[in-house]
Design a protein that fits this description.
Two copies of one chain form a homodimer. Chain A is built from nine helices and 14 strands. The radius of gyration of chain A is 21 Å and the shape is globular. By secondary structure, chain A is an alpha+beta fold.
């Protein structure tokens, strides 16, 4: 790669969106005005080549897109508006400059959509695996806390979009080396490579007085357990209510529930809200073309997640449901 | 390593310092109150095993310390107070949990000193090189911008502490495999392994009406050129004025100037201020036991850095001084 300073010049944004930015890339650190009417949201996630992606299943552009998308998804899960991002990238010698610029282009595409400014980061060498760490900063109106600990008995459990598609898309990619895909397969592959952070739905939910919320990075089983644990409640989820896409059913219906529960990387939102708010939110989502589905209820009791399947209930663990722990309904 | 969630429980701070923190580690993202009287400073730096450190020259504790120190140094170079940090770490299998906890302990030591809270990050696997990315957030009183572009003709050029010691310390480590060090060598090794971010001096400088400032991560030659470029001025540095420690002179005086100019990783501050402010700042530093040295002057002209050496001036490039570019004094 050429000189680091020349590279920085190339990735430096040509346009600034956020009026609160005082100084972006180019000094020791970025400087930002603080807004007393807002609270700040900050998160940081890393993607490693060979662990979170391979060049066989993701192009440099898609890798960049996804590295930013997973972080924006965390802002969405707090009900916030993403505003800034910083990118640190450790680059092995085998990656050429054009590929690196494509990674930044993939991020810039999403950043433009959400009017986010790239304000800093680092570019360093590494021996082996490309590693991208992204920090995203967002904001939300004061005193709106969409935390995992907000669930209460009597709430309904909801999920946005459809679940399992990303895992199914990865399965398509891993079993089709020639990359000739059917229309159904193309849909699933797209869901894997270009997950949509649910910022708009997060914003709608932020208007409610009380919502618990998580984004689905590790699958419904894991995320539901996190909320149940943080809130000390029982989740009861109906398997028949899980929103599965037409594409996943067509591709491999026998594995669709497994992918929905444990696949992860859907970056949809899962959470709970008081029953009385459900109809209004459902209508709002429907009007804007967003899918939101009621998949269960919250009740009192020692923290756990139950999966109701026909006339039985299973304890749904983070990493799999345990057939030795059947509960009588 | 054990379960990621158990590991997070172990590194989670037991105590919160910053009253502006609403929600730290444990949800999708951290939540922070914004202070209208302050501006926010944000930076992000990555250290890669085999590139920025090796386990032969740095212990896990020192690696952690340094990963946080280099970022705090960027906050110091903006005149700010560090407040929060996020850590993302990509871990190869050969590192055990105790070593990882030592990395976090090394960071916690510095964080406690500066009353900073760990508010997020990520822990992921990697195949080969341990990679640590740290994001640090800091704050500074409104409208105080200690930027590289602030230098003006007539300013004096200063540097804090002594320079070259970190590079000399690395030289000691690389040439003493048995790790039996003289007292002089111990001082230099300590400077390499435990660089001190100059937050206190940065804060004194922030009180001045106009200061240009950079931290010395890449050596005086590189940092002086960055300020000269950003401010479009000429730096004139006197080689005889460069503050060299007794230890570096004793260890290898023939290479001390080379290390001071190009060694880097001293994490001292270099900058400029109006002549009229010098005496006052010098006194303040002296009273608190900090070294600050006037090493040159700023003048008008197309951006460059001159190094005055006996009766000649050389153009000091970022990466070395060029003997073909001697200027008549």
């Amino acid at each position: 790669m050429q000189d680091e300073f020349d590279f920085i010049e190339q990735i430096k944004p040509k346009k600034i969106y956020q009026s609160s930015l005082i100084e972006g890339i180019g000094d020791d650190a970025a400087l930002i005005h603080q807004k007393p009417e807002m609270e700040q949201i900050i998160c940081m996630d890393t993607m490693v080549e060979g662990i979170h992606f391979t060049t066989a299943t993701m192009s440099p552009y898609q890798i960049g897109y996804k590295a930013l998308a997973v972080n924006i998804s965390d802002i969405a899960a707090m009900g916030g508006i993403p505003t800034f991002y910083l990118v640190s990238i450790a680059i092995p010698k085998c990656w050429d400059e054009q590929e690196l610029l494509s990674i930044y282009d993939g991020m810039a595409m999403l950043a433009n959509k959400y009017k986010m400014d790239l304000i800093g980061g680092d570019t360093v060498s590494t021996a082996d695996c490309l590693t991208i760490t992204v920090t995203v900063i967002g904001e939300i109106e004061k005193d709106k806390h969409l935390l995992r600990s907000n669930a209460k008995p009597g709430d309904i459990v909801f999920v946005t979009g459809t679940v399992g598609d990303s895992a199914a898309g990865l399965d398509v990619l891993l079993h089709n080396e020639d990359k000739v895909f059917s229309e159904t397969e193309k849909i699933l592959v797209y869901k894997h490579q270009f997950p949509q952070p649910r910022v708009e739905i997060g914003r709608m939910l932020a208007a409610l007085p009380r919502v618990s919320l998580n984004d689905i990075s590790d699958g419904i089983a894991s995320e539901a357990n996190e909320i149940a644990k943080a809130s000390q409640v029982v989740f009861s989820i109906d398997e028949d209510c899980l929103p599965l896409s037409k594409a996943i059913r067509e591709y491999n219906n026998s594995r669709s529930i497994e992918w929905a529960l444990y696949g992860g990387e859907d970056f949809e939102l899962i959470g709970t809200m008081p029953k009385s708010d459900w109809e209004n939110i459902y209508k709002q989502c429907d009007e804007k073309g967003f899918i939101i589905t009621k998949i269960g209820t919250v009740s009192e009791g020692p923290q756990k997640v139950l999966l109701n399947k026909k006339d039985k209930s299973y304890i749904l663990d983070k990493k799999g449901y345990n057939h030795f722990k059947v509960e009588t309904k």
